[in-house]
Amino acid sequence: MNKSRITVYLKSGNNCQIFSKRTIEVLQEDFTVEKMKQGVTLTDDKSHTIIPFESIDFIFIKKLEGE
């Protein structure tokens, strides 16, 4: 069951979104500026997206209800 939704907003105005089985606390540790400088990789069952650090406006992580 998915525990979190990650939305990466890009400077271009687009966004990428995936659902994760990891908790919001773990994801917040994964998405620090130092760790993101090489880019952000979003992977789920259907896709694998690599986003360069320079393209990211901000990242929003939401805990899903019922988790």
Quick description:
By secondary structure, this protein is α+β, with helices and mostly antiparallel strands.
Give an overview in words.
- Helices cover 16% and strands 43% of the residues.
- By secondary structure, it is α+β, with helices and mostly antiparallel strands.
- It has a single domain (4-63), classed as SH3 type barrels (Roll), CATH 2.30.30.
- Strands 2-1-5 form a three-stranded antiparallel sheet, with helices on one face. Strands 3-4 form a two-stranded antiparallel sheet.
- The radius of gyration is 12 Å and the shape is globular.
- It starts with a strand and ends with a strand.
Q: Report the radius of gyration as a whole number of Å.
A: 12 Å
Helix percent reads 10-25%
- Beta-strand proportion: 35-45%
| CATH fold-level topology | SH3 type barrels
| Average pLDDT over all residues | 88
Q: How would you sum up the global shape?
A: globular
Structural class: alpha+beta
What is the first-to-last residue Cα distance?
9 Å
Number of strands: 5
CATH architecture: Roll
Strand order of the largest sheet: 2-1-5
Q: In sequence order, what are the helices and strands, one letter per element?
A: EEHHEEE
CATH C-level category: Mainly Beta
Whole-number tally of structural domains: 1
Chart the SSEs and their pairings:
Layout: E1 4-10, E2 15-20, H1 24-30, H2 33-36, E3 40-43, E4 48-51, E5 56-63
Antiparallel strand pairs: 1-2, 1-5, 3-4
Q: Which terms summarize this structure?
A:
67 residues; alpha+beta; SH3 type barrels; three-stranded antiparallel sheet; two-stranded antiparallel ribbon; 2 helices
